[in-house]
Amino acid sequence: MTESTTLPRPETHGSFLVAALYHFATVPDHAALREPLQALCEENGVKGTLLLAREGINGTIAGPDAGIRKVLAFLRSKPEFAALEHKESRASKMPFLRMKVRLKKEIVTMGVEDIDPNKIVGTYLNPREWNELITDPDTILIDTRNDYETAIGIFKGAVDPDIKTFREFPDWVRNNPGLHNKPKIAMYCTGGIRCEKATAFMKQEGFDEVYHLKGGILKYLEEMPEEESLWEGACFVFDERVSITHGLKEGEHTLCHACRYPLTEEDRRSPLYEEGVTCPHCHGKHAAADLDRYRQRQKQIELARQRGTRHIGS
Predict the structure, then answer these.
(1) 219 Cβ partners below 8 Å, 6+ apart?
(2) Is beta strand 123-125 parallel, antiparallel or unpaired with respect to 85-91?
(3) Contact predicate 247/238, CB 8 Å
(4) In DSSP terms, which residues pair with 116 in a beta bridge?
(5) For residue 128, what pLDDT band results from cuts at 50, 70 and 90?
C-alpha cells in the first residue's frame, strides 16, 4: 500500500477501543476461566460479550485502551490462547451495556458434529489476494452471514444464501449442487470465525479449493483503500454501532428495537417507522400487546435520555 492510499489508523477515532476476537483451541477447563475473566473485565471498565467453550473463545469487548490491553494480556497468558489474534476499531460511545462471559457448547453455533478448524480449514487470503480471487471467473463467492447482515452490505458478485442463522448454512450447501460447477470456493463473514467452520465443513463435503478472507470483512475494511475496494455498502456489527464502513468508521444504521433489523435513513423516514416500536421490515407482524409493551419501553428510554442516562432496554 502506498503512502497516498494509506488509511488513517482506526485507533485515532473514537473514545472507546473495540476488540473483536476469537481463537479455536482445546480448553477442557474453560468453565474455570469464566469468573476471573468476568471480574477482570468489570474491574477495568470493559463491557461486551465473550463466549467460552471447550473449542475456544469468541466475542467482542469495548472499553478504555488500558482495560482492553489488560484483558487481552490475561487471555494470552493462558497457553491455549497464546496465539490469540484480535481486530481493533473505535466507538464514539460505549457500544455495550454490560459485560457477559458465557459458557457455551460452541463458540460459533453451526450444529455439525466433529468440525474442528484446528484439523482442517480453508486457505487464508489477505485483502489483496482476496480481490484477485473473487474477480477470477472460476470462483464462486459465498457470504456466510445471516440475511439481516447481508441486507446492508455484501461483496460485489457474492452469492447470498439468505439464511436466518448459521445453523442453516450446511443444509443450504447440500441443497445447492451448482456449487460444484466451478473449481474455487471463496467465503467470507464479519470477523472470520464463521468461515473457520464453514470452510472446514466445505472441505469435509468434498470441495477441494476452498478459501476464506483472513480477518473477515473487518480486516478488509481496515486495510483496503475504498477506491480499490470490492465491498458494497456497510458491515453489520453486533453492538450499538450497528454498522461500520471503510476505514472502520461508524455507519449510519440504527436498529429496530422490535425486530432487531438494521435500518437505513430511508427506513426511518418511512410512515411505517415508529421509533422503538415498529419499522418497514416488521410493520403489521406484532400483536397489539407487544406494540403496547414496545411503546412503554420507548417511553422509558426517552425519559432516561432526558435525565442524561441510558435505559437498560435501549
Answers:
(1) 87, 127, 191, 192, 213
(2) unpaired
(3) no
(4) none
(5) very high
Q: State the pLDDT confidence band at 114, using cuts at 50, 70 and 90.
A: confident
Q: Which domains does the chain have, with CATH numbers?
A: 16-103 (3.30.70.100), 123-233 (3.40.250.10), 254-313 (no CATH)
Radius of gyration of the chain (CA): 20
The owner of cell 442516562 is: 309
The DSSP result for 39-63, as a single string, is: HHHHHTT-EEEEEEETTEEEEEEEE
Pairing mode, strands 56-63 and 16-24: antiparallel
Q: CA 42, CA 31: separation in Å to the nearest integer? A: 18
Catalytic residue among 41, 189, 195, 279: 189
User: For residues 254 and 238, what is the distance between their CA atoms, to the nearest angstrom?
Assistant: 12
71 and 41 in contact (C-beta within 8 Å)? yes
For the stretch 173-224, pLDDT in tens is 999 999 999 999 999 999 999 999 999 999 999 999 999 999 999 999 999 9
Per the annotation, the verdict on 279 as an active-site residue is no
For 257-290, how does the pLDDT look when each residue is reduced to its tens digit (9 = 90+)? 999 999 999 999 999 999 999 999 999 999 999 9
| Alpha-carbon separation of residue 76 from 22, 57, 73, 289 (angstroms) | 12, 12, 5, 48
Distance CA 187, CA 185 (A): 7
Grid cell, residue 301, equals 428510554
Which alpha helices (H) appear in the chain, and where do they start and end? 31-43, 65-76, 127-134, 147-150, 169-174, 193-204, 216-223, 265-269, 288-307
